[in-house]
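Fill in residues.
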């Protein structure tokens, strides 16, 4: 089932998500729906709060459905180390049609749990490292525009405000 993706302005995007504690059928159903929603958008990452679910859960697939082996389900993730930096354009399904250059670590090591609660340790660099940072931010109520200068952030907020007024957001 394709879920509704909440857009910037929704309070659900700004809360600290709760830890996943039940690795049950309900969680698996949410994950199936999140992948379907992410592919339909299309996007390479989706975090549960973006579909109104207050859980530390994210789906990632840099191949956007082309390679099943690239699917990542991440529960309760945390960045345990990071190295270097990269600058590149970043967007978000909750802030559609906006993208800006964001600085992120070049490499990260992320620890978390998989869909059955098994321990995961992911060493990532480049785009995957960027994506992991972006999704983990979501679980802490942080959006990519929070990493921009206040001037750029204000410009984007003003453009979104106009879209909201026009009923286009
Ligand atoms: Ni996002």
């Amino acid at each position: 089932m394709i879920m509704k993706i909440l857009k910037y302005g929704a309070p659900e995007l700004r809360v600290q998500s709760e830890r996943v504690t039940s690795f049950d059928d309900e969680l698996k159903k949410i994950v199936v729906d999140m992948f379907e929603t992410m592919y339909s958008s299309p996007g390479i990452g989706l975090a549960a709060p973006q579909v109104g679910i207050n859980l530390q859960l994210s789906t990632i697939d840099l191949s956007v459905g082309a390679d099943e082996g690239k699917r990542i389900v991440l529960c309760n993730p945390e960045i345990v180390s990071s190295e270097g930096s990269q600058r590149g354009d970043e967007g978000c399904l909750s802030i559609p049609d906006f993208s800006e250059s964001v600085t992120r670590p070049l490499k990260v090591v992320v620890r978390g749990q998989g869909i059955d609660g098994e321990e995961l340790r992911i060493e990532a660099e480049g785009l995957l490292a960027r994506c992991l940072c972006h999704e983990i931010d979501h679980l802490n109520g942080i959006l990519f525009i929070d990493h921009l200068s206040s001037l750029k952030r204000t410009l984007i907020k003003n453009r979104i405000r106009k879209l909201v007024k026009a009923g286009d957001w």
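The helical segments are 25-40, 127-139, 150-165.
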